[in-house]
């Protein structure tokens, strides 16, 4: 993939090879803890070995020339004085927004040629946007002569998504893409940013990600609506408990004591999911540390049911996959992962049953939806970094 990216870069941008640099940012999968991040809660994501390669060479004329393998025929050109959001430019807005944030931080950007090549399915809920954002932030800050801490890169990327793209994401995706470590998950508190690396010792099981191949765009989904509903629930509870800062400050017992004070039944169910999902993440992390994979898998399935019934972010395609996968031989846990409204499921499947798992699930899913799923057997990988490679 690196050699291909370098060859393609030189095809689109012939010239001096001495200043070419290569960077990589992974995608991520969230094992459990969905829609808790922007509510100040716990999550358990892992960076993946699939991701985005960025080949870059500095310019000195203030111009940016961008090409993406994933959006062929759509080169993007602009200069440093025209970093404006363009509704007709779905992928180029992400690096453009990063550039605007870096300049706001005081970095001097003088232009660059950039070539992106990613193997994360776009719109699948595996954080292709955070991968693009983080790899761009690292590469351009390095070109500008600033070695920014990973945490600062993550905040820059989050601000880009929130303010420039218009999606009110939490910090989980950027932290997972930034701080990922091979064969580990990250137990992260999204309010305090306290994090702990948790070994992913899966024994005879592997992580299998299944893509519904139903595209979803976060900015056009009900993602922001769900966030607003959570804020409404928090406001209602703060009238009774003024010291409450986030929904994640509530224990399950607290919620059961206070839930009748939330008059809107829909908002009450949204809050119920957040509180109980936080509790599931904490318990699931302990089970994973104790190598109780079956117990962990049971909590994964409880998470999906809550996301389906209380948070209502699954949809028919994800639910068909969930029902097929939970009954498949060798699968001990499965759930939707990501924001929902399409995207992917994540499952724990016995290594020697993966092929039969794929066959059974695909047959049911195609029959029920008319769509063909894609499967990815994944490992946890490292976070965003520069790749040391020789350009020939």
Task: Describe how the helices and strands are arranged.
Elements: H1 2-12, E1 21-32, E2 42-58, E3 63-68, E4 76-79, H2 93-104, E5 112-118, H3 128-143, H4 150-165, H5 172-179, E6 184-189, E7 195-199, E8 205-211, H6 223-238, H7 252-258, H8 265-289, H9 293-309, H10 316-326, E9 331-337, E10 344-350, H11 354-369, E11 374-378, E12 385-387
Parallel strand pairs: 3-5
Antiparallel strand pairs: 1-2, 1-12, 2-5, 2-6, 3-4, 6-7, 8-10, 8-11, 9-10
Helix pairs in contact: 2-3, 2-4, 3-4, 3-5, 4-5, 6-8, 8-9, 10-11
Care to describe what's here?
The chain has 392 residues and is α+β, with helices and mostly antiparallel strands. Strands 1, 2, 3, 4, 5, 6, 7 and 12 form an 8-stranded mixed sheet that branches. A 4-stranded antiparallel sheet has the order 9-10-8-11. Helix 8 (265-289) runs antiparallel to helix 9 and helix 10 (316-326) runs antiparallel to helix 11 (354-369). 40% of the residues lie in helices and 22% in strands. The radius of gyration is 21 Å and the shape is globular. It has 11 helices and 12 strands. The mean pLDDT is 93. A hairpin with a 7-residue loop joins strand 3 (63-68) and strand 4.
Quick recap:
The protein is built from 11 helices and 12 strands. With 392 residues, it is α+β, with helices and mostly antiparallel strands. Helix 3 packs across helix 5.
